[in-house]
Amino acid sequence: MMSSTEIAGFVLGLVMVVCSIRELHWSWPLALSSSVLYFFVFKSSLLYGQAVLQLVFAALALWGWWQWLRQGDNAQPALRIQRLPRGGWAVVTAASVVLWPALAVLLQTFTDSDVAWWDALPTALSLVGQVLLGRKYLENWWVWLLVNVLSVVLFAYKGLWLTCILYALFALMSLWGWQAWQARLKAAR
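The structure assignment produced for this chain is given below.
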């Protein structure tokens, strides 16, 4: 059953990703708002990893907003779209491999989650993706694509159909984001 909270989070989430793709700093306060709403949606669905992740997203939204608003000495944005440095995927993979079981064990130990491992996987990857997005690494879009595909399955299992649609749209938007950021990166060189 869709709630008004889920509907509002859905709308804000879509607008937030469009703003991220266009590199508009307004994506971050929208992320904050959508995350707070989705905290309640996920908590009521016993998706505690996703619920806590929304609180982390809210905090990271403040960090991301600051990152994107910072200016360098020449009054230009301090951050520009960039590629992961050499060895970056190794760090992304290592962080994900460490976070996933750690979060799953926490969920199994401290909650009544019926999908602790499946909840923990997109949660761990989302944390990595959010950091990559905040630092404007082009590769964040591939991480988000994986997160979104996994999340569609998880939310379908939980019967969160509107959120399934949202994350399916997020998956498509991840591809759009990759293309848009890649074109901007090439144009800047």
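Interim note for the steering committee: DSSP finds seven helices and no strands in the chain. Residues 4-70+92-106+115-188 form one domain.
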